[in-house]
Model the fold of this input.
Amino acid sequence: MKRILVIALALIMTFTFTVPFAFMTDAEEPANAFYDFDSYKDLIQGLTDSSSVSFSTLMTDCTTVCKDTLTAFAKGEIKIRIPTINGEPAPLRNKDGFSNITFFTSELYDLPWTWYHCKVGEYDLRIKISYLDALDNEQLREAVSYTDVLDIIAPDAPSPSNYQDYESYKSIYEKDLSLDNGKTVKAMICELKESSNVHVMIHIDGVLMILYGDNSLLADSFFESLDLVAAEGAIKGDVNMDGSFDSMDYVLLKRVYFGTYPEEKLNCARGDLNGNGQIDSMDYVLLKRAYFGTYEIR
Ligand SMILES: [Ca+2]
Ligand SMILES: [Ca+2]
Done:
């Protein structure tokens, strides 16, 4: 069932990193909210189509960082990433009152996070990702490992050098992991005192990823089957969301500008090419030029 609830941050902070996002200082930012999705397809549609219910609901009262992320999805500037195991989308299952996938507007480090509730063999596995490549912070977008990210957003967070100061960790250490795509990434492994579950944090292609599952599942061999792939979502210029960019797109955009076609039927984030927050004649001109190949949509 689709729903959105404002919930206390404390209820979902299962990961004990509570240091605030360093460059987010606005105390007036809205509280965390979440939205459930049943499938990868629903997630892609729900976060890339600015005319969908989930998109407009999430945009209504979310943080600036979350708005930037959603807008980047809608414009097709960044693609939704899907976790894969041996080349197949990771199997999902409902968990803890949530659906298969949950998008949080402002969770760990005050960032928006997508939680994939997965089932791998007998094990429950939570995969959380946050899109650093959507953020207005050049240093974060250029980060190459999780340590680069933590140095910027949470320098005092638990790490291999300071975990003894934190009650809940048995050990935190770093290791190199090989992924299914052949790349090797630096990972931070956090072992807990009172659970056989571990947290594993890695940085991959502009995304910060945290896996939470049983120690015996999250072995090196599991990571050799794991990847995070870009899903086909937004097609640039496809303002009517029919899966292709063609002359209908600029015709309809022109009609929205002249008020003869309902704006809510189009993905207007995708049609606002000059980025001024409204559909104007310049958007129509640029979209038409893009169609004829004399302008490249960013
Ligand atoms: Ca179209
Ligand atoms: Ca515009």
